[in-house]
Design goal:
Length: about 200
């Protein structure tokens, strides 16, 4: 197991730690969740950087990088449902899209076609990160800093909550939009037989 793959796989235990901290009420638990979220984001950049730098780019690494990203974000979104931040219906829409696109990629792979990441898919990921990050920041102001004197703490938490909700709606839209673009471009790989593709 090389360093890039270890960095990639580290996002799985990090996801469990973040979710645990999100559900705890002791002081600085929310801050710890946000810090680990940032660290997980850094590993996402660092694994690709080290793989290219060390000449260790592999199909396993490429596949697991995408899968661990999805596991991290979906795990945190489910946790947000658990703590009452977002509606489960919205998360189910995102979950359904992610499974459908992953399935499409697997079918395409059996036909020798690599479904590359689209710009809309990358934009979707960015909006998901921003939305989850806003909710994690809100928890810091709402719990870890709530004892501070001044209404600005609660006001900031309220602003972050509204920002998180707005960003989450945007990320739901971007998730469905990017999914539709993938199916428009590669749908024939799924719905047509191998000898019909390209006709």
């Amino acid at each position: 197991m090389n360093l890039p793959n270890l960095l990639t796989l580290s996002r799985i235990p990090l996801m469990f730690l973040i979710v645990w901290l999100m559900r705890e009420s002791f002081l600085w638990a929310a801050t710890g969740a946000f810090v680990l979220f940032v660290i997980a984001g850094l590993t996402d950049w660092l694994d690709g950087f080290t793989a290219r730098k060390m000449g260790l780019v592999s199909n396993f690494g490429i596949l697991m990088d995408a899968l661990t990203d999805k596991m991290l974000m979906l795990g945190l979104m489910i946790a947000l449902v658990d703590v009452g931040q977002v509606h489960i219906f919205l998360v189910l829409l995102i979950l359904g899209r992610e499974f459908m696109i992953t399935g499409m990629r697997l079918v395409a792979a059996t036909k020798g076609v690599v479904v590359a990441a689209e710009s809309s898919g990358k934009q979707k990921t960015v909006t998901q990160i921003l939305a989850v990050g806003a909710f994690l920041l809100e928890a810091i102001f709402r719990t870890d800093l709530s004892s501070d004197i001044g209404s600005w703490v609660i006001q900031t938490a309220d602003i972050l909550n509204r920002l998180g909700l707005a960003l989450f709606w945007v990320c739901v839209f971007m998730t469905l939009y990017s999914g539709a673009k993938y199916f428009k471009k590669y749908g024939e790989l799924v719905f047509l037989d191998g000898d019909e593709v390209g006709k």
